[in-house]
Amino acid sequence: MTAIHDRSSGVLPGRTAECLALRELLDALRSGRSEVRVLLGEAGIGKTALLTFLRESAADCTVLTAVGVESDMELAFAGLQQLCAPVMDHRLGLPQPQRESLERAFGLIDTGAAPNRFLVGLAVLGLLAAAAADRPVVCVVDDVQWLDHVSAQTLFFVARRLQAEPVGLVFASRTPIDGTAGLPTLAVGGLDDGDARRLLESAFPGRLDAAILDRIVAEARGNPLALLETPKDVTTLHAGTVSAGVEEHYRALIADLPDDTRMLLLVAAAEPVGDAALLSRALAYLDLKPAAMTPAYDLGLITVDTRVQFHHPLARSVVYRCTTGDQRRLAHAALAAVTDPAVDPDRRAWHRALAADSLDEQVALELESSAGRALQRGGTASAAAFLTRAVELTPDPALRAGRALAAAEAHREIASFDSAHRLLATAALGPLTDLQRARSAQLRTRLAFASARAVGDPDALVTAVSQFTAVADQLMALDTALATEAYLEALSAAMYVGRIGDGLAAEVAVTARAALAKLQPRTPLDLVTHALAHRLAVGAVEAMPAMRRALAALKESTRDSGQGWFWRAFPLVHDCLIHETWDDGWRDVSAHAVKLATDSGTLALLPSALLSRAGAAVENGELAKAGALVAEANDLAIAIDYAPLKYHWIIVAAWRGDEAEATRLTTAALESGRARGEGRVIGLAYYATAVLNVGLGRYADALAAARHAGEYDDLGFYPELLAEMVEAGVRCDDRVTAEQAFARLRARTRAAGTPRALGSLARSRALLSSGERAEALYLEAIGHFEATSQRIQLARARLLYGEWLRRNGPATVARVPLRLAQQEFVQMGSMAFAERARRELQAAGQKTRKQPTAAGDELSPQERQIAELAGQGLTNQEIAGQLFISAHTVEWHLRKVFTKLGIRSRRELRRKFG
After folding, report:
1. According to the UniProt record, where is the region Disordered (predicted)?
2. 233 Cβ partners below 8 Å, 6+ apart?
3. Which residues pair with 187 in a beta bridge?
4. What whole-number distance in Å separates Cα of residue 318 and Cα of residue 246?
């Protein structure tokens, strides 16, 4: 549809605000800033006209376009390839790994390796940034709800990484879709009656009397397409036939066309690439003459030049849907016949599948092969679609059942749970092997657990944990490796349920331990599962040797790229192993998890890996970095259609001493945890509350929270909770509670024997001691922590030592550790502990500033990250790869860093941050 412009204002009638917003977007691009918009509105409401206005207003920009097509949703990277095709020459300037991943994704090279999804995202970001070096780039994506899953995820990823590039991404969608949450939105509503009347009068000047015009305006309800596509025949209008809707209008237009024209339109609608040559070959195959298209041209339904384009996306959809099944099969058969199987085997297989009118094993085999290629390209959604259609076409019951199970597993991975359930029901109708039946039961339990978490059903969560255990028992006689993995899954689920399960974790652990006792642990999976079952069944001290062996195997597995499955499946387990053994290697382990996610392109793993890295950053005293990593993880979770990660801000906020934010988050976590059966979240919220209040010096509140947290032994953070309980108990003169907590802490730390454990033990014992013994223990704690990367705990030990010295020795002596502790807390951004140290310094007679500022606080979290990485000697390209931004954005941030810090070179950065 050609947009009708208001000549006086240069905007679309009734769309002044929307057009001005799009012009402002273009102005921002011209000034060097990036912009993203999501246009939301019903079919025909004017989104496409606004996109046309945007393209026409961007004559000085490079405009890239893509249109989501319903029948093309199953072909991975199809939409992305459509968008990027005009700027693909810029790929030659990309780093080789990015270029190769992009070329593999688009089928330009075939090395047999799967394209790295994150490298593809970075490549697209780099491609757009390179194109924008010449002039601003505007990416216009219509009907984004019909883009293939991988393309949509990649573009949402790119949309969140644009910063300093003159690149705009504008999406149009009928309804909000997963992945766009948080992106700037422009709602497109109906026209008011006055604007609707003016638009209609401009389309039918002098041809409508007032009564007919009023009737059309009333029935169109402000929908511009309904107004403009009202039947053009004034006689028909006066006869009283007003379109009941845009789709009905298109159906009426198409129904009046000759049979050959309708068939020709159907073939064009079924071929989403818009390849004019391919359409021509398909028409020749069907013996249709090009002249048959003339009536469609005359109505403005379609144009064919270098590309085949329907005048509105809705027209394509209606053309395809208003034909019979036989006609659609004939169109797809023609397209399959003229699609080169060597160049585009997957599209050919998909057309063949849609052309099939009966069971066909050959087509099913082709679809199965296409599914394998889709998985190699990272297209799990495409693989699920291919496998689902293969199931429908498979004649052999056993093969059909096996393919249905594989398809169900693929649908679960993309969170398409209803489809997964249906396919499991199909699989159950066929002859399954014992192993397939066990896998089916396992998948059904995974779906039940995911559903229970989604709706917040505590009873269903507990039931699912028991079912996980039953599945593991079933698998033990069939495949011990799968059974071991299933037991670990059951143990992990039980840890998540935590205190809500009323002894469930121990019950699962006893069962798993008895079953696994028959097996000799050999692999990291075996060792970890045996150790975790042992830990939950008999306790921390008795299980410590097994836990340490498991951690050693886990660390060794970081050198084996083939162990990626373990990190993907059990993100909670490695964090727990680190903390239960009082190890100091969380930074290295989490860095490996992030590297594995980025190297393998595993979307589902990266948010959890980034959160693990954030936890390590907290312990290392890098609170700004931790906050940036949590924000990054949250953004990526949204971009890949995962639920936003709600509670990981709690620990960061607690250590920062941000009372308002930490209180808000912990209150929400406690309410949600109780309602939804998330027992681990409850413990985490109480632990964070204890840390916050110890920092603020509110020891009674800290002790109350620690007691609540200590009602259940949550693996991972319970060991550190004991140290908080000792300090809070001593400060509240509740020596009984403090000594009870210390006894548990002493048993665990002695069993661990690491510098981190011994530092925590000595610090807590010092709190309970007096005289020279206390001083010796504080110095011992400081010495142990100095041998670790536990920077925040080292500062805590110095603070406690300084506080003790102020009360038990010359105040001037106390100033040294107190001043050092305050400086460290300020640098880390732990402002509640910094203020506590400041008050002690003041009491020791030293003048202090009320609100100290952390070194480098003038930098934003991302600027600080970039400065630190540059200080370590990384290049802009290497920094971009770590932070999932473009090299141009890194350079932009570094210029701001140099200005804010008053430095001129990377050498000065190395001195400050290296």
Report:
1. 839-861
2. none
3. 40
4. 10
- pLDDT of 506 reads 94
CA angle 712, 717, 718 (to 5 degrees): 40
* Direct distance between the N- and C-terminal alpha carbons of the chain, in angstroms, rounded to an integer: 58
Q: How far apart are CA 646 and CA 436, in angstroms?
A: 36
CA–CA separation, 174 and 470 (whole Å): 44
Question: Is the model's pLDDT at 497 over the cut of 80?
Answer: yes
* Coil/strand/helix, residue 69: coil
Cα–Cα distance measured from residue 682 to residue 687, given in angstroms and rounded to the nearest whole number: 9
Q: Which of 319, 321, 299 is nearest to 231 (CA)?
A: 299
Cα-trace Rg, the chain:
32
Q: Contact at 8 Å (CB) between 709 and 683?
A: yes
Q: How far is CA 173 from CA 167, 250, 267, in A?
A: 20, 20, 25
> What DSSP element (H or E) covers 141?
strand 137-142
Token pair of 903 as six digits: 């430095």
Q: Are strands 62-67 and 302-304 parallel, antiparallel or unpaired?
A: unpaired
Claim: this prediction has a pTM higher than 0.85: no
Instruction: Quote the pLDDT of residue 1.
Output: 41
Q: Which of 773, 713, 699 is nearest to 744 (CA)?
A: 713
Burial of 207 from C-beta contacts in 10 A (0-12 / 13-18 / 19+): middle
The set of residues, in sequence order, having a beta carbon less than 8 Å from that of 445 and lying 6+ positions away, is: 464, 467, 468, 471
> What's the sign of the alpha-carbon dihedral 171, 175, 176, 179?
negative
Report the alpha-carbon distance of residue 909 to residue 912 in Å, rounded. Answer: 5
DSSP 657: T
The four Cα atoms 719, 721, 724, 729 give a dihedral, to 10 degrees, of: -100
Q: Can you say how many angstroms the Cα of residue 511 is from the centroid of all Cα atoms in its chain?
A: 35
- Which of 13, 11, 53 is closest to 202 using CA atoms? 13
- List beta partners, residue 303: 309
The DSSP string of 712-781 is S--TTTHHHHHHHHHHHHHHTT-HHHHHHHHHHHHHHHHHH--HHHHHHHHHHHHHT--HHHHHHHHHHH
The whole-angstrom separation of Cα 704 and Cα 580 is 23
CA distance 133 to 605: 33
Full strand arrangement of the beta sheet holding 167-173: 62-67, 137-142, 167-173, 35-40, 185-187
DSSP string of 442-478?
Answer: HHHHHHHHHHHHHHT-HHHHHHHHHHHHHHHHHHHTT
* In contact, 288 and 264? CB cutoff 8 Å: yes
Q: Tens digit of pLDDT for each residue in 590-632?
A: 887 777 766 655 556 778 788 888 888 998 998 888 888 888 7
Amino acid, res. 836: R
Other residues' Cβ atoms within 10 Å of the Cβ of residue 657: 22
DSSP β-ladder status, 185-187 and 62-67:
unpaired
Gap between the Cα atoms of 191 and 221, Å rounded = 8
Distance CA 211, CA 227 (A): 15
Q: What beta strand segments (E) does 557-697 contain?
A: none
Separation between Cα atoms, residue 429 and residue 403, nearest integer Å? 12
CA distance 736 to 609: 40
DSSP-derived secondary structure for 671-700: HHHHHHT-HHHHHHHHHHHHHHHHHHT-HH
The 3-state secondary structure of 256-284 reads: CCCHHHHHHHHHHHHCCCCEHHHHHHHHH
Rounded-to-integer distance, Cα 119 and Cα 549, Å = 35
> What was the pLDDT predicted at 2?
41
% residues pLDDT > 90 (the chain): 42
What DSSP state is assigned to residue 6? Answer: B
d(CA 845, CA 77): 67
Residues in the chain, overall count: 914
Instruction: Return the pLDDT at 613.
Output: 87
User: Which residues are CB-neighbours of 845 under 8 A, at least 6 positions away?
Assistant: 811, 812, 815
Residue bearing the bigger pLDDT, 170 or 556: 170
